[in-house]
Amino acid sequence: MGGFSRSCRGAVVLFAVLVISTVFVAVSGQGAVVPAPVAPPPLALVTPPVQAPVALAPVALPPVAPLAPILAPAPAPAYIFPSCDGVEVVYTLIATAEIFPNASTPAKQPYSFEGSVTLTNKGYSTLDMWGVGMTFQHNEIMVSADGLSLEDGRAFPVNVSDGAVLSPSPPQALRNSIETAGDATKISKVFNIIGTEFGEPLRPMPVTLNITSKGYNCTKPKFYGNTTMHTCCVEPSQNITLTSDDIFLPPIPGDITITYDVLQAYTSNYRAMVTISNDSPVGRLDNWNLQWTWQESEFIYTMQGARPKVADTQVCVGGLAGKYYTGGMDVNNAMSCSVSPVISDLPLEKTNDTTIGNIKYCCRNGTIMPAVIDPSKSKSAFTMNVYKLPPNVDDALHLVPPAGFKIGNGGDATSLYTCGAPRLIAPSLFPDPYLDYSTNSMKTWQVSCNVTEGPRKPPPKCCVSFSSYHNDSIVPCPTCACGCKANPQPTCSANTSAMLLPYSALTLAPENRTAQLLAWASILHKPVPNPLPCPDNCGVSINWHIVSDYSNGWSARMSLFGWDNVTHPEWFAVVEMPKALPGFEKAYTFNATKIPPTNTSFVVQGLTGYNNYLLGSNLVKTGVSVLQSVISFTKKLTPGIQVKGRDGFPTKVWFNGEECAMPDSFPTSGALRMASPTVLGVFVLLVCTLFLDPFELL
Ligand SMILES: *[C@@H]1O[C@H](CO)[C@@H](O)[C@H](O)[C@H]1NC(C)=O
Ligand SMILES: *[C@@H]1O[C@H](CO)[C@@H](O)[C@H](O)[C@H]1NC(C)=O
Ligand SMILES: *[C@@H]1O[C@H](CO)[C@@H](O)[C@H](O)[C@H]1NC(C)=O
Ligand SMILES: *[C@@H]1O[C@H](CO)[C@@H](O)[C@H](O)[C@H]1NC(C)=O
Ligand SMILES: *[C@@H]1O[C@H](CO)[C@@H](O)[C@H](O)[C@H]1NC(C)=O
Ligand SMILES: *[C@@H]1O[C@H](CO)[C@@H](O)[C@H](O)[C@H]1NC(C)=O
Ligand SMILES: *[C@@H]1O[C@H](CO)[C@@H](O)[C@H](O)[C@H]1NC(C)=O
Ligand SMILES: *[C@@H]1O[C@H](CO)[C@@H](O)[C@H](O)[C@H]1NC(C)=O
Ligand SMILES: *[C@@H]1O[C@H](CO)[C@@H](O)[C@H](O)[C@H]1NC(C)=O
Ligand SMILES: *[C@@H]1O[C@H](CO)[C@@H](O)[C@H](O)[C@H]1NC(C)=O
Ligand SMILES: *[C@@H]1O[C@H](CO)[C@@H](O)[C@H](O)[C@H]1NC(C)=O
Ligand SMILES: *[C@@H]1O[C@H](CO)[C@@H](O)[C@H](O)[C@H]1NC(C)=O
């Protein structure tokens, strides 16, 4: 092998078939949502009641199920809690009862329970957004919660054995005593929760209790008696806030923000515009899907600029809508009656269709790019007519936005993004294009969505390998970087580190590299694990190869391989290299640009009509699908940069909006150096995107 890289030069690019469009990206850090640690469960009943508990006489509630003896009609004695400068949260168990079925073992016996949660703002600041967090211990199923909904959008009944965060929908502020002269109705809120638990006949209490508002620090909850739990959440600052009843919250940033504008309101229906904006320089949505849950059984009668996936009209026809909307309106024609509709974009052809398209920013087949690449493609918008149901049909200003927003890439709304609750913000202004006059929306809510982090983060779809001219081994993508197959053939180990690769293996599909890996391990005298480590299973892999390192500059070659049968049109990648970025000069056969605000990253995209489509190898007749370009850097602005150390390698890479898995280590110096293999040397010349530049050859 080896030695024919020059034959690539000027080779016809067999595969750069494709089309149109110019793009470009921008940068920056992600808003990571780091959950605060959950308070440890209280182990003991700590403070005894200060006042004598008031009469404990059981309250005679009707049994929940016919067979149900009421087991714990817990009274709520008036405890005196310690003083709290902030928000006080009290959970009181009201009742439990045995319910059907009669289980064979006590641990499986279901019981209903009812509890109340009281929040009281005893602090200086208004609590503008809040959620109450609880974790349980008896496999609780929550059945209802008094005007609150689960912050993650799941609908009742819901398995909350992993914990639950409940927030009011629409959001309500908990105002402070100072601005309301101590108006208890405005500083306090009580809500009841009803649910089912298993195996605890008397006292199914939560183990943790908190509020999720930013900056508030809740103490470990304490028991008062057996059925009351108390916590005090200290506010972040004791600045006095004065707000009006109809407060507008400040918009908050997010990787994706969704605005829900009510444009016109009538008594029984309203017209709304929904705008999805990609505010992240690294994010991308393809074939977006938006889902929400209506809070008052509203339904969508018409929609322009997008469409729901399912009409579900039987819900309207058979329900209250069918009874109420008789006469002029036929609910059979409703666009969607689903309580949690899934909405997706329209294809390009509908852009100018005056019946279903014709909305600014509509109809791009669900692709949303970062604004740095193309501001006109960084939003999607659609409008809809929403009909309300009794008893909410008499007041045009009774407007409740849907909750539980979810947005994802393709298919069902996925877990790629995690969205917060809608926040009432100052109404959007719509400037008249010709006159110095703006109309505003009646009400505007904003939803902020960030890339999901933590355990619910979906696995990556791309991975990165590192190599350098000074080391003959490639530091590979990690084992199972993009997930493991359920029953891999041949059997492989998901826990063993990936083996070093020879350059010649780079152009083989990851599952076809076994012979090369074994041969290379034997040359390097490295042990061979049995079974072999699993492949990375990534559809796209990216190799970053340091090509040269001189006193005044250095260069690297970035190669993208598509391994599956997916085509990535108008691909882009964002490369984060904080140390090296000041010296970034240019890419030779890609379009690469620094992303201005952060100065840690640059965005790379293919050149229109040349290499802006990355094909999957299954889609090409022979060889592999690879796109590559050399990228050059100067050292003038980065004196002392350790190119061959870490500084010459990216810290993070995103491909088409998703973060790629990174290798665990870097190529070291002084390793065995074989007879100058080159990556290009083994390419099956499907694609040769190399242009000539001084650093081209290894
Ligand atoms: C490179 O990307 C920038 C930013 O998107 C764009 O303005 C420019 O036209 C692109 N150049 C080429 C040659 O595609
Ligand atoms: C998204 O991240 C931003 C910070 O980057 C944060 O202010 C915002 O609250 C986050 N949104 C959600 C829904 O967590
Ligand atoms: C449930 O079953 C047990 C025995 O299987 C019986 O003793 C008990 O009375 C039953 N409980 C009710 C409420 O039917
Ligand atoms: C509050 O409780 C919820 C649910 O148990 C938990 O997920 C969250 O991390 C807690 N938040 C804080 C700040 O402790
Ligand atoms: C609720 O979820 C937990 C953990 O996921 C599971 O163990 C439990 O069986 C579930 N309960 C029900 C009733 O599905
Ligand atoms: C929360 O309060 C506890 C106890 O007062 C304190 O130890 C802890 O540092 C506080 N945490 C934060 C994030 O302020
Ligand atoms: C709490 O429960 C224990 C054990 O069941 C009981 O002895 C005690 O009297 C109860 N305390 C109160 C205040 O009800
Ligand atoms: C509270 O007020 C002080 C002084 O006016 C200000 O510096 C600080 O930023 C305020 N804190 C918050 C959280 O608004
Ligand atoms: C829609 O109309 C605009 C302006 O007339 C035109 O430039 C565009 O190509 C049309 N789009 C489609 C998909 O027909
Ligand atoms: C539109 O998106 C779908 C799904 O992602 C894709 O299969 C189709 O090829 C796209 N159509 C166009 C014209 O890009
Ligand atoms: C792996 O090797 C087999 C047998 O040579 C070949 O049929 C297959 O196409 C290869 N896979 C890829 C993705 O190149
Ligand atoms: C991609 O290839 C796999 C098998 O290699 C096949 O099952 C799948 O249907 C193909 N998908 C498409 C979109 O062609």
Automatic annotation (TrEMBL):
Residues 1-29 form the signal peptide. The keyword Cell cycle does not apply. This is COBRA C-terminal domain-containing protein. Residues 461-667 form the COBRA C-terminal domain. The keyword tRNA-binding does not apply. It holds the Pfam family COBRA. One of its GO terms (cellular component) is plasma membrane. The lineage of its organism: Eukaryota, Viridiplantae, Streptophyta, Embryophyta, Bryophyta. GO terms for biological process: cellulose microfibril organization. Keywords: Cell membrane, Glycoprotein, Membrane, Signal. Belongs to the COBRA family. It comes from the Eukaryota. It is found in: Cell membrane.
